[in-house]
Amino acid sequence: MTSKNKNGSLNAEEQKFSNINSHWHLSYLRLKKNRYGMFGLYGVLFIFFIAFFAEFLSPHSYKKTVQDELYNPPQLIRFIDSEGNFHLRPFVYKLIEEMDMETFEFSYSNSDEMIPIYFFIQGDEYSFFGFKTKLRLFGNNEGNIHLLGTDNMGRDILSRMFVGTQITMLFALLAVSASLVIGLMVGISSGYFGGTYDLIAQRVTEFALSFPSYPLYFALVALLPKRADETTVFVLFAGIIVLLNWASIAREIRGKTFLVRNLEFVRAARALGASRSRIMIQHIFPNTLSHVIVWTSFCIPLIILVETFLSFIGVGVQHPMVSWGVMLNQALDIQSFAYAPWMISPVGMIILTVLAFNAFGDGIRDAVDPYAVTK
Asked: For residues 218 and 316, what is the distance between their CA atoms, to the nearest angstrom?
């Protein structure tokens, strides 16, 4: 039996015991023991870190073009020069472009000129949450550094990939959040009220689920205004994704609500005169959170793959916005891919992100399982 102090609250020792045995704390302990899940968690945090500080981590502006550096290959960071001397400050060699007069093909080789890498420098100006700044993590204002090479317009691929991470993750979070809000509203209300409302809501849900996804994507994208700016296309494109994804979570939350609505604590709240909205928000919704978290962790990589594919074929995010799909669209033809294979570098970020979210989703799913055994 637990004792309370004069204010009616638990003492420190009992509060500690209560926190340790709470569902979320036990879930966290299970997640910590899951190496695969923790790998996913660290991967997700790494992706969000890149997305949050994309411009700061980029050595150049993602819009900056250098006409003399088209299709430049990646430059290797070095500490030891060609003569075997060690340098404490990392550097890259400036590239020399040469053309074969017989085949008219360009080739690149390292020159003797070293470009030192400086940290926390003043580079190209960008906006960070409304504040104008020029601070960048690394770079060199006297020579261009391209660790992942350049594209067909001389733009730094590393900088574009970091900013593309920001745009792609923003798109995925926007689409998943809107789908989640609609799905929760429909699912909880449908499962709680039942009757005619549930019948109508589920027929609408089934209607949304019955559409073949990609043909409808193409049909709806074709309706987007041709002269709309890239921001409008971005929002409308996200709306199309939401239109086709809310139904799945609504159906799952409805089933979860059916299990919860007749439990003792819900019936007690109803008997005490709690309103329907209060019961749904304060009693039923918290019991769906574990399912919502798992669904979100699996849905985000799915949305990323959809956006990447549609942008890759030119019907998704539009220029001058840059996403992973937009970057891959530049290597659409075989000639560009053969001449500059480094242009598909965003594929690495896509693979890392999908694996990280799936691993995190698996870890969360196992962690929130009330029947899992903690050791």
From this structure: 10
Domain span at residue 169 reads 160-367
44: left (phi over 0), alpha (psi -120 to 50) or beta: alpha
Q: ∠ CA 26-32-37 to the nearest 5 degrees?
A: 115
Residue 88 maps to a domain: yes
Assess whether pLDDT exceeds 50 at residue 14. Answer: no
Of all residues in the chain, what percent carry a pLDDT higher than 70?
Answer: 90
Instruction: Give the three-state DSSP class for 34.
Output: coil
CA torsion sign, 316 to 41 to 360 to 292?
negative
Q: Which has more confidence, 186 or 100?
A: 186
Long-range Cβ pairs for the range 82-89 (8 Å, 24+): 82/110, 82/112, 87/114, 87/116, 89/116, 89/117, 89/118
Same domain, 140 and 288: no
Q: Which of 129, 152, 175 is a domain's end point?
A: 152
Given 152, 173, 204, the domain boundary residue is 152
First to last CA, the chain: 25
